[in-house]
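A student in our group prepared the protein record below, which I am reviewing. Here is the record exactly as it was handed to me.
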Amino acid sequence: MTTILEKLSTEHQDQVQYFINSGNGPVCLNNYIGATIKIDHLGKIVCTSCSKITKKSFGQGFCYTCFNEAPEASPCIMNPELCEAHLGLGRDVEYEERNHNQPHFVYFAATDKVKIGITRNTQIPTRWIDQGAQSAIILAETPNRYTAGIIEVALKEAYDDKTNWQNMLKDIRDASIDLVEEKWIAQELLPTDLAVYFTEDESILSFNYPVTEYPSTLTSMNLDTTPSIQGTLTGIRGQYLYIDGNRVINIRRHTGYEVNIQLGND
């Protein structure tokens, strides 16, 4: 099948289900664990915002112009405390109102450590699956992206906001992590004006990923340097495919790449 790569879509079930866009609808990749996979980059990259052909992808699928101008690539995507949607400002006011001046959650996710992050209310649990979290808990609910970002900044001295992708893909865990305990510790660290957004819900969501065996070493691949990748699909976690056990490719990082994908005997 020939398609333009985009982020894998997911469903949270007993085992996380992953789907890739085939151009004619979604294909469940879980059905091909243990089968051969071949991904050939056809040499074209399409900007995810303006649909123009670009020689290089910026951000996650943008041409250079859209990376600097499109609302989907605005600075507050990476630094939500910079968001101005609640002030009626931004690269595209309608986009900001629709996506950023909406309820957001601050959360803890667990892998080899406790990570803090934020996401729009409509992106739970998708956001946690995309990060490859083993489990997650909500800390606070806010009316907009800016306020969630301010809470995240307030807790960054105590908690990391980055996922260690290699440890995540090796399934290195800290068995001592107690997300409920960490949640209540975090409440004590919040200034009074931000603590009002804290939620008392102690529900934890856990995730089981379709990985046959976790590797002890990893080799990261990309289609820029290796335009043809072939092997056995042995697992999926976050937005990464495991090929032949220890080779991994981040599908989301290749958003906009035109590829031909062969699965099994297809």
User: Anything to note?
Assistant: The first strand starts at residue 2 and ends at 4. The chain has seven helices and 14 strands.
